[in-house]
Amino acid sequence: MTATTHEEHHDEIPTGIKRWLFTTNHKDIGTMYLWFSFIMLLIGGLFALVIRAELFQPGMQVVDPNFFNMMTTLHGLVMVFGAIMPAFVGLANWQIPLMVGAPDMALPRMNNWSFWILPFAGFMLLAPMFVGGNFASGQGPAFGWTFYEPLSGQYDKLVFFVFAVHLLGFSSIMGSINIIATILNMRAPGMTLMKMPMFVWTWLITAFLLIAVMPVLAGVVTMMLTDKYFGTSFFDAAGGGDPVLFQHVFWFFGHPEVYIMILPAFGVVSEIIPTFARKKLFGYASMVYATASIAFLSFIVWAHHMFTVGMPVAGELYFMYATVLIAVPTGVKVFNWISTMYRGSMTYEIPMLWALCFVILFTIGGFSGLMLGVAPADFQYHDTYFVVAHFHYVLVSGSLFGLFAGVYYWLPKWTGNMYSNGLAQLHFWLSTIAMNLTFFPMHFTGLAGMPRRYADYPLQFTEFNVMSSVGAFMFGFSQLIFLWLVIKTIKGGEKATDRVWEGSHGLEWTIPSPAPYHSFTTAPEVK
Amino acid sequence: MKLPFERKTHAISAFLLMLVSGSALADYKLNFQEPVNQLGQEIFDLHMLVFWICVGIALVVFSVMFYSMIAHRKSKGAVAADFHENTTVEVIWTIIPFIILISVAIPATSTLIKIEDTGDADITIKVTGLQWKWKYEYDADGTPVSFISSLHPDHNKARAVDSGIDVTKIENYLLEVDNMMVVPVNKKIRLLVTSDDVIHSWWVPQFATKKDAIPGYVNETWTSVDKPGIYRGQCTELCGKDHAFMPIVVKAVEENEYNAWLAAKKTEAVAAAAEAAADKVWSKDELVARGQEIYMGKGGCFGCHGANGEGVATFPKLAGSAITIGPDAAHIDVVVNGKPGTAMAAYGNQLNDLELAAVITYERNAWGNAASVVQPADIKAAR
Predict the structure, then answer these.
(1) How far apart are the first and last CA of chain B?
(2) Contact, B261 vs B253, CB < 8 A?
């Protein structure tokens, strides 16, 4: 069979439900990942709004404390595993083949499977919430997204949680294998590793992180499972087990996990800034090495989440030094982005607004991270709202804003239509203002001493909690603008050119907009 | 349901004020609570040092960024330069942060070593985290003195959903307990921190002392207090439903006052132990009355099972349940030994025989239940 007949054979786009159920097309699967993660973002956001409604005033007004804990737990789990991670896999599915000049992902059937596991995992995770007939007596997990033993061992629907995590793990591992196989084997002739776009590099490193740590997560939940149902005592002190072991294993997964959620965002921003500065990315090689260093360091700093558990002082010193060291490669990245802008020819289209906002706010999150890394001070910050402020600056204005930047950057390529600039501006400004209104005051509530995961609080924290709640509702409803904008753009709009952006560079801009169902059936040549 | 309207209006107006003037922020608590010992001051200084370093770096980095964003706009006719690497610059901005980090690490190391030095303590107090209260144990010249410290009953009542009580009218809302921990000033106090159920964390912000209470571990930490006063803290590790409702209140007093307090506690402890051990048959009414006090007070039973025995959220109801109206052996077993894998604690470690007998008798004869009376001797036999 020649290449031409092959192409004709596949040119029909399947229709109806079968297109989505059985698809092996990276673009369809990318689209499904992105929609799934957006739905999860709205669900997780709804949980956050329940939290903020309860915390609007001191005293318990809306929910009981157990339900409150269920909301904090599911908010975290849904956002991490349901929204941020799948969204980046969605971006990877759409963009990696287009950016390396491949016709599809290396393992298209597995790609279908890794997506379709996700809705079932999400169902398993959320189903116990509806046990008991009515919502108020729901029996969802209520032990925090970090599911520390022995508290999580007290949860009597633990099996649902464990199964959901296993499914999520399968999905992530298969997705990562696919990404690695695609990047290593399917690059266009001439595209050496050091010529790859930065987004592809960051995803390659992220995929290795995922493969390394998802089995650790699977291990720890399996140990919980056998402790609960088969009489082992890995984490039960009464049986000779060790509750602190749980935290070591969990954070050995958990710390690389936070880089899994931020490295691809670094990649997106490294694509966007050169485009709108009309200047090549400064320090490409150092960017690659910095990313790899961050990934390596992420494996050897885990216990900085556990300074208060009572480690030997030598252990605390080691984890403090290793942790603050991450500031060096992270600093290199920020300096490189700024040097890219320096003496560029800057314009401020929507993706650039998000990317610039990312650089500023992520850096603020990095500063609070540095403060948290200093162990003696961490004793005061640990498990207060200061930590909540820190990780929302890196996860909301970091990961999520990175995702928005990416979607606004590539949406015209995906749909063939330009989006409404007015709506996009509105979405950007409302989100940015609301994000800061929500999370900036949390630095103060934390320093003043409000512990996190509190359903109710002493009166001196009222004012800042009011601000956070007002901001959170603003932020939540602003995302509906985004939903409307995306639907509008899919349905129509001003036609996008192939290049879309004046300063765009890279293979994805050489194919028509919208990207045809099958692209790069003949490999392009990269000089 | 009555909402605290005045507080709300106050908060909203304060918030609006903040939008128009930064000075309104001064009314808010923006930073650590005032430390009351030397180590706390040292930690505070370290925190401020790192903070100002971050501010300095931010000023430099963001100035360059905003300069580029404003000066090198395409609309101003900026044409992109062609450089995209510079080894010298890249080496410099790798080394400078490294040097800054070392300058932070040196004072941090010295402070950390002081935090972890629990030697030469004047007194030792054992702190045990329980769902959802604290137990403090002292050594009074060889006699163990221990007591449970729970959220004050008035606060507990007010914090219920639909309590109808305006919490903003309650002084120190959620920061008041029934039995305060008492410590002498100007002494090195070693704390042994552990837990009987899940992980908790003992934190008093003004002491700058935070340590996790972990079952199976006895963690060591220390603190000292420079001036007499009442200091308040809260649990800082998620420990289940009532995580937000197990405050820590410490009263620091002069040494002679502390000694007098400990002596009184010792007398109390000896009397209570004698009463519980006495070979006395108690009447049902006596036990029910004491039992109700424990159910609503130091036992904290109502937290999960409800003041009316109907059970809170997913926790089991006691009114008419198989255990409370069935044979007493099963009831004694679950209260004394707890139910592993659930939040039901082993109260055998927390209450004496008389208290256990009283609370079990109360549960068996309240809310329409009418079952047998349990005597302290029955508990002793079952232990």
Answers:
(1) 46
(2) yes
Taking CA–CA distances from B85, the nearest residue in chain A reads A283
Look at B101 and A327 and tell me if their CB atoms are within 8 Å. Answer: yes
Q: Do A346 and B98 touch (CB under 8 A)?
A: no
Q: What are phi and psi of A346, to 5 degrees?
A: -85, 135
pTM, two decimals, is 0.91
The single-letter DSSP state of residue B141 is T
Report if residue A170 sits inside a domain: yes
Q: Tell whether omega for the bond before B316 is within 30 degrees of 0, i.e. cis.
A: no
**Residue B78 in contact with partner chain A when CB distance is under 8 A:** yes
Q: How many whole angstroms separate alpha carbon A95 and alpha carbon A103? A: 11
- Asked if the structure places residue A329 within a domain, the reply is yes
Using 50, 70 and 90 to split pLDDT, how confident is the model at A136?
low
- Provide, rounded to the nearest whole percent, the portion of chain B with pLDDT above 70: 93
Spatial CA neighbour of A204 closest among A291, A118, A283, A83: A291
A positions 23-82 inside 8 Å of B (CB): 57-67, 69
Q: Considering A452, A488, A505, A518, which one is annotated as catalytic?
A: A452
Residue A17 lies in a domain: no
Contact A237, B217 (CB under 8 A): yes
DSSP code at position B279 = -
| Residue of B146, B248, B243 whose CA lies nearest to B207 | B248
* Contact criterion met (CB < 8 Å) for B163 and A464: no
According to DSSP, residue B180 is labeled: -
Which chain A residues are within 8 Å of B199, Cβ to Cβ?
A: 148, 150-151, 243
How many of the other CB atoms lie within 10 Å of CB of B190?
18
Chain A residues with CB-CB distance to B239 below 8 A: 151
**Angle A239-A242-A247 (CA atoms, 0-180°, nearest 5)?**
145
Residue A3 has pLDDT above 50, yes or no: no
- For A414-461, how does the pLDDT look when each residue is reduced to its tens digit (9 = 90+)? 999 999 999 999 999 999 999 999 999 999 999 999 999 999 999 999
Interface contact flag, B15 A284, Cβ < 8 Å: no
Range of the domain at A481: 26-510
- Distance, CA of B6 to CA of B226 (rounded, Å): 37
Q: How close B257 comes to chain A (CA, Å)? A: 29
- Taking the Cβ of residue A269 and every Cβ of chain B, the question of whether any pair is shorter than 8 Å is answered with no
CB B351 within 8 A of CB B294: yes
Q: Are B341 and A444 a contacting pair at CB < 8 A?
A: no
- Clarify whether A452 is annotated catalytic: yes
Which of B14, B28, B215 lies at the smallest CB-CB distance from A237?
A: B215
Give φ, ψ of A474 to 5 degrees.
Answer: -60, -45
Residue of A nearest to B175 (CA): A458
Angle A354-A360-A363 (CA atoms, 0-180°, nearest 5)?
125
Whether A518 is in a domain gets the answer no
The pLDDT tens digits for B13-31 are 555 555 544 444 445 688 9
Interacting residues of A88 by C-beta distance below 8 A, sequence separation 6+: A203, A206, A261, A264, A265, A399, A403
Query: Residue-wise over B143-173: b if at least 16 C-beta within 10 A, else e?
Result: eebebbbbbbeebbebbbbeeebbbbebebb
Token pair listed for B315: 């926790």
Cα–Cα distance for residue pair A99/A271, rounded to 1 Å: 11
For residue B243 the two structure tokens come to 């995580």
- Which tens digit of pLDDT belongs to each residue from A453-496? 999 999 999 999 999 999 999 999 999 999 999 999 999 999 99
Cα A469 to the center of its chain, rounded Å = 23
The answer to whether B93 contacts A382, with C-beta atoms less than 8 Å apart, is no
Quote the ipTM score: 0.92
**What gap in Å lies between CA A404 and CA B356, rounded to an integer?**
59
For residue A37, the domain's CATH number is 1.20.210.10
10 Å Cβ neighbour count for B19?
10
pLDDT value of position B142: 86
How many domains does chain A divide into?
1
Q: Tell how far CA A212 is from the center of its chain.
A: 17
